[in-house]
Design brief:
Distance between the termini of chain A: 27 Å
Strand order of the largest sheet of chain B: 7-8-9-10-16-15-14-13
Helix content of chain A: under 10%
Number of strands of chain A: 15
Largest sheet of chain B: 8 strands, antiparallel, barrel
Strand order of the largest sheet of chain A: 7-8-9-10-15-14-13-12
Structural class of chain A: mainly beta
Oligomer: heterodimer
Number of strands of chain B: 23
Largest sheet of chain A: 8 strands, antiparallel, barrel
Shape of chain A: globular
Helix content of chain B: 10-25%
Radius of gyration of chain B: 42 Å
Low-confidence stretches of chain B: 1-17, 446-452
């Protein structure tokens, strides 16, 4: 954990994950990045448009990806993406077993230190990044090279044969909390969603020459055993999150 | 990326302070309609893409901070059965109706869909065509296709509607996609009792929704709207109210029939009480013989008197029985006759009639009895002599006609229920694109196939 003063407003900026280089100041919404021993401002991040998401920074839960044991996590950041027909949230999770792993992106047992809880159309997908080297699918490799691949094409990711469900250009609207990269205004990426009949899902995000692959599955807040959800006026906190 | 020069903190009063953890976030976001200036409240801000202004019915795009008018309408707002903003509890979760679609198959077979929202549980659907309400959940996994239909969670779904085209006729409220009047999707539906699995596809997109038929009482309790108590024809996924009870009725009736047969075997079993022979002189004066005595030891019993004349040929005999209680002189009378004819004609030899006569008496009280038999006979054959008749009296009797009647009466309700089930299934599947399946295929006249 690293505490610094915001180079813009002087407020305390807390980096919980040593592996993440960027944090948006909670007070003045300046993106702060660590360089060497100090920090530097990356400029202001746009205000987050209001939404009724039940997730917030500090929400906790547990996720068992492949029946390899549930891992507790905490939401530490968010990126909001927009495209021509809507917008969605990607909540950044830090797994508890990654605390103390230093600035490595991997926790004990080689498992990823971070995950993403995608929130779109009232549904949730929990994914973790998988090393691009491990992806054998030719269709994914073609996507990474910027070649066109049709919706409906198949791609094997891990043990799952998935189908490309959606290809869109996404624009970063805003962000908050800790982030693995800066989110400059007007930043656009190519985002590809994949689904499998079993409920597994993946997304491929291409930013210029860089391609990242995230794989996981659809989840419900109930099965994640979430706590610390956002209270929303006039709506009862669900029973599963009351604790 | 260049870093901006730090601003003095004092100039940052416009920056929103972080929301305190325990302060509830507002549930609605007001925005002003660029067409009429009315205040439209977004109930699913952040998810909603399109919203219809409740004042001027303009369709608005809210994906950008600058709300845009997609289409101006001048229609008056429709009167909805469930006004948008209404909340109700279904399946243990409170839902708010936030969107409404009127849809049809090219203008025919109209139905309505309400979009339900809960910020912690996402979206659900309420679908009705006036005959009942179905609660729909969009699937995040795909059903598997099977030999005939689809499977989901080890449940089989029969195809019902194939290759439909559903269009949007009217919209109100807010939606998480770019909704448009006239928008058409491909549809197909699969059913099992109480559930419908629906496919919607357009372009590259494919969505599956699982619908659960709601109990009218549940729907009335949740949103104050019911369904006609007996909608006809039934919905494609409406469970037959007779199916289960008909099969139970058949099981029950089967057991009852078995029990009757068993009781008949046990209590109808006979015990011979007396066996004596008499001789009948045909064409002589009727004669009376007294046989017995015989003892009936149960309080009440049936008695079977069998007469057998092995030499009877082209003759008849009449037997008038009277069982007379020695103590009370009470007399119980019955009658039997045996006749037997034979001969030959152009078709060969023939015989007719029976050399035996069985007479049953139902309820005789205990006692010592004499059996008085009045015998008469006639022989059509010249020179026919006396005929020996063996008379056997046995306790117990099986009244087969009564047993058959009882079995029919027991089966009747089950048969009626099965008939109702059949009629229900045929009416339910009448609209199916796939033709009748299962029980509904029974008793279909071939002409039905030519109806469409």
């Amino acid at each position: 954990m690293l505490k610094v003063a915001c180079p813009n407003c002087g407020a305390e900026v807390l980096f919980r994950s040593p592996a993440l280089p960027v944090k948006v100041c909670d007070y003045c919404r300046t993106a702060v990045t660590r360089i060497g021993e100090g920090v530097r401002s990356l400029g202001k991040v746009a205000d987050l448009p209001f939404d009724v998401s039940p997730i917030r920074i500090g929400t906790r839960g547990r996720f068992d990806q492949n029946a390899s044991g549930a891992r507790a996590f905490e939401v530490i950041g968010r990126v909001r993406w927009g495209w021509t027909d809507g917008s969605w949230n990607e909540w950044l999770l830090m797994f508890d077993d990654a605390i103390g792993a230093g600035d490595s992106p991997w926790a004990a047992g080689g498992r990823p230190a971070h995950g993403w809880l995608g929130e779109a159309m009232g549904q949730f997908m929990l994914t973790v990044e998988i090393p691009f080297d491990e992806v054998r699918s030719t269709n994914i490799r073609r996507l990474a090279k910027g070649e066109k691949v049709a919706v409906g094409a198949e791609a094997r990711i891990g043990d799952e044969v998935m189908t490309i469900a959606d290809i869109k250009r996404a624009r970063c609207i805003s962000s908050e909390g800790e982030l693995p990269w800066p989110t400059p205004l007007g930043w656009t990426i190519d985002s590809v969603d994949l689904r499998s009949p079993s409920g597994a899902c993946a997304s491929v995000q291409r930013d210029g020459q860089e391609t990242s692959v995230y794989a996981g599955r659809y989840v419900t807040l109930d099965e994640l055993g979430v706590t610390g959800l956002r209270a929303i006026e006039g709506w009862a906190m669900p029973r599963f999150a009351a604790g | 990326m260049a870093s901006l020069p730090p601003d003095p903190p004092a100039s940052d009063t416009d920056a929103p302070a972080p929301i305190a953890a325990d302060t509830p976030a507002p549930a609605v976001k007001p925005l002003s309609c660029p067409n009429c200036g009315g205040t439209v409240e977004l109930r699913a801000a952040g998810y909603t893409v399109s919203v219809v202004c409740q004042y001027c019915s303009s369709l608005l795009d809210v994906t950008h901070p600058d709300v845009m008018v997609i289409k101006r309408y001048q229609e008056a707002a429709a009167e909805l059965e469930i006004p948008l903003g209404t909340r109700g509890v279904l399946k243990g979760v409170e839902w708010e109706a936030i969107g409404w679609l009127a849809r049809s198959e090219g203008g025919a077979y109209p139905w309505e869909e309400y979009l339900l929202f809960n910020p912690y549980h996402g979206y659900r659907w309420l679908v009705t065509d006036g005959r009942g309400w179905t609660f729909g959940t969009m699937l995040t996994r795909l059903p598997g296709s099977s030999y005939q239909g689809m499977t989901l969670d080890d449940q089989a779904y029969q195809p019902f509607f194939a290759e439909g085209r559903a269009q949007v006729d009217r919209v109100l409220g807010e939606f998480y996609w770019r909704v448009a009047v006239g928008e058409t999707v491909r549809t197909s539906d699969y059913v099992r009792p109480g559930f419908m699995l629906s496919f919607e596809g357009s372009g590259d997109e494919a969505n599956w929704t699982l619908g659960e038929l709601l109990d009218p009482g549940e729907m009335r309790g949740a949103f104050g709207v019911g369904a006609p108590p007996r909608s006809w024809p039934p919905l494609p996924h409406q469970p037959s109210p007779y199916g289960g009870i008909a099969s139970s009725a058949f099981k029950f009736a089967g057991l009852a029939v078995l029990a009757i047969l068993l009781l008949t075997m046990v209590f109808g079993s006979s015990r011979e009480l007396m066996r004596q022979s008499v001789t009948v002189e045909p064409d002589a004066q009727a004669k009376s013989v007294t046989l017995g005595p015989l003892t009936l030891d149960r309080a009440w019993q049936a008695v079977t008197i069998s007469a057998h004349a092995p030499a009877l040929d082209n003759a008849w005999i009449d037997l008038d029985y009277a069982l007379v209680d020695r103590a009370t002189q009470a007399s119980y009378e019955a009658y039997g006759a045996a006749e037997r004819y034979s001969g030959s004609d152009s078709d060969g030899a023939w015989t007719e009639g029976d050399r035996s006569a069985t007479t049953k008496m139902a309820m005789l009280p205990a006692g010592n009895y004499d059996l008085v038999v009045d015998l008469a006979g006639h022989n059509w054959q010249p020179g026919g002599g006396a005929v020996d008749v063996e008379i056997v009296v046995a306790r117990g009797a099986r009244f087969w006609s009564n047993i058959v009647l009882a079995i029919i009466l027991i089966l009747l309700p089950a048969i009626w229920l099965f008939w109702r089930h059949l009629r229900f299934e045929q009416a339910r599947q009448y609209a199916s694109d796939l033709g009748p399946t299962g029980v509904a295929r029974l008793f279909q006249s071939s002409g039905d196939d030519d109806d469409d």
